[in-house]
Design brief:
- Helix content is 40%, strand content 21%.
- It is an alpha/beta fold.
- The strands form three sheets. The chain has a five-stranded parallel sheet, sandwiched between helices.
- Helix 2 packs parallel to helix 3.
- It starts with a strand and ends with a strand.
- The model has no long low-confidence stretch (mean pLDDT 86).
Length: 223
């Protein structure tokens, strides 16, 4: 899971990031609203945590701009503003949840998990399914009818992303950025190769056709 933490308080930003990293989330950080907006609008994030009182562009403006442009990543406001009016404003601008500082680690992680479940990013108890395919997100393993798929790390991440966005067309560039990252030294040609690898793992179960090629665009997981 990839999370963007937008927070101008350096020590708090690093603490939040470390908490998430200890739970095996991949974390990017932004220290002001403009940087956060740019990263959120150009990257692929499963969740965004967003402070309200940010320099250069406040959290309300970031949230409103992202939603107006169609970005739907689940977003959790983290803020010292505890008035009902502030909470209502944040939710009306498109935030999915709101937590007031200071907060406990347990509550923060529970809200993160809740948002990811609500958005379909993870299932109850860390299970994701599509048809006969089951992913154990705690152990990073894939199964079909209790038979292990024996996936490599990148094969697992690719299948995870496809299931996460099931029945939606994903461009080759989207997949490349999400699974390999924009700083990878490979090229997006690696996507086609790993789609081939993944289809070979699904072939013994006659499921390789679940991964459809959308000519000239990318791929889609669809029964």
């Amino acid at each position: 899971m990839r999370v963007l933490v937008i927070e101008d308080d350096g020590p708090l930003r690093r603490i939040i990031s470390r908490i998430l990293e200890e739970e095996q989330y991949e974390v990017d950080q932004a220290e002001n609203g403009e940087e956060g907006y740019l990263m959120a609008s150009t990257g692929e994030y499963d969740l965004i945590t967003l402070d309200i009182m940010l320099p250069m562009m406040d959290g309300y403006a970031v949230m409103r701009k992202l939603r107006s442009e169609g970005h739907q990543s689940p977003t959790l406001f983290l803020t010292a503003k505890d008035r009902i009016e502030d909470k209502v404003k944040g939710l009306d601008f498109g935030a999915d949840d709101y937590i007031v500082k200071p907060f406990s680690t347990e509550e923060f992680l529970a809200r993160v998990r809740s948002l990811l479940r609500r958005s379909g990013k993870i299932g109850i108890e860390g299970k994701m399914t599509y048809g006969p395919i089951l992913l154990d997100t705690n152990q990073h393993e894939g199964f079909i009818n209790e038979t292990a798929l024996k996936l490599t790390i990148k094969e697992y991440e690719l299948l995870f992303y496809l299931i996460q966005n099931k029945e939606q067309i994903l461009t080759r560039d989207q997949i490349y950025q999400r699974v390999w990252g924009i700083e990878s030294e490979t090229t997006d040609a690696i996507v086609e190769l790993y789609i081939h690898y993944l289809r070979k793992k699904l072939a013994p179960f006659e499921l390789e056709r679940l991964i459809r090629t959308v000519r000239g665009v990318g791929y889609m997981l669809k029964e």
